Task: structure prediction
Amino acid sequence: MARRVAGGAGGAGVKGARRPEVRLPPLAVYDGGGLEPDGDYDGLEFTEADFAGQDASGARFMDCALTGCALDETRLRNARLLDSVLTGVRGVGTNLSEATLRDVELVDARLGGVQLHGAVLERVVIRGGKIDYLNLRAAHLRDVVFEGCVLVEPDFGGARLERVEFVDCALKRADLTGVTLMDVDLRGAVEIDIARGVERLAGAVVSSAQLLDLAPVLAAQMGIRVEG
Result:
C-alpha cells in the first residue's frame, strides 16, 4: 500500500501539497477480460488493455498499475482508485464523475474530455502528458500537484482546491468560475491563461511576473481602462 509523504513546494504563507509516494506490491497480471460495474481489482497489473466503451461504474482499484491502457468513453463513475499508478493511459470521453482518487500518480496521460465533475482527488500527482477539456466542476482537490503537464481549457467551475500546486504546468483558457482556492500555488506554472473567473484567484499565490501577465485580465474584470 502507498505510504504518504508530507511536504511540498510551499513558500511563505502557503502550505505545500502532500505528495503521494506509491509503492506497489508484487502485482498479478490481469487476465479477466473486460471490466465490470462494482468490480473489485486489487494488486493487479493492466498493460495495453483496451477498455474503450466498457462500464466499470462503482469499481474499486487498489494497489494497481495501468500502463498504456485505452479508456475511450470508459465509464468509471463513482469508481475508487486507491494507491495506484496510471502511466501512458489515453482516451477521449472517459467518465470519472464523482470518482475518488486517493494516493494516485497519473503519468504521461493523453486524455480529452475527461469527466471528473464532483470527484474527490486527494494526494494525487498528475505528471507530464496533456489533458484537453478536463471537467473538474464541483470537484474537491486536496494535496494535488499538476507537474510538467498541459491542461487545455480545464473547467474548475465551482470546485474547491486546497493545497494544490502547478509546477512547470501550462494552464490554457482555464475556467475558474465560482472556484474556491486555499493554499493554491501557481508560481511554478509556465503559463497561466484564465478565460473566466479571474476574480476568484483569492487564496492563490502567483509570482510578480505572473501578476504582470494577468494585469490586463484583472483590469478588464474590474472595469479599468488602461491607455497610453
